[in-house]
Amino acid sequence: MLRSSVAPTHVGDGQETLTDQNHLHRCTSDAPVGGPAGHRFSRPGDYSPTSGDGSRREAHTVNNNCILPACTDRLVLAVRSGHPLTEQPVTVESYTAAEHVTVSRRGSLHDRIDDALTALGHERRVIASAPTTAPALQLAHDTDLVVTLPDATTRSSRHQLGLTTLQLPLELPPVTLHLLWHHRHDNDPAHTWLRDTAIQTLRALFRT
Length: 208
Hints:
By secondary structure, the chain is an alpha+beta fold. It is built from six helices and ten strands. The strands form two sheets. Strands 1-10-4-3-2 form a five-stranded antiparallel sheet. The chain has a five-stranded mixed sheet with strand order 7-6-8-5-9. Strand 6, helix 3 and strand 7 form a beta-alpha-beta unit.
């Protein structure tokens, strides 16, 4: 199984252990070959990871799962069409004066954005949280709530809802998108091919 996720240390609080350096270890070639019978592909069966993006060399393990930073995304604002913030360029003052919804599986009303604003002497009004981006975007569509979230990974959903995208009025590090797989698949040639193909595709799509 191959999964992708956005690093929660940038926005939200879902899986902090993914970036806890005290729990990270290099994936090694000693990881057992995995994958049930029938899950190997004919063409990538002879694939050599040294010819690709080297996902095994770049990954770390946490609780038997390999974690690999695949690409980065920037943060943007999403608001309904006709929202007051669309009437003029967004400033820190107008951003913090608006009401906000966060994305947090734990229901937190505070994230790194609030820390950055505090450092600038500002505080925003967060009045709701949503467990995933889908309900957060729906709230932004139905109300005057502002949601701050990754750009490329939510672009299709924002377009479908007809939301307006605005620039975040402060500098923040980009959000990291990770690939995750169980270490038993680490040496599987087909799985390695799939990982490296996914990495190459994501990095091409997210290149700015």
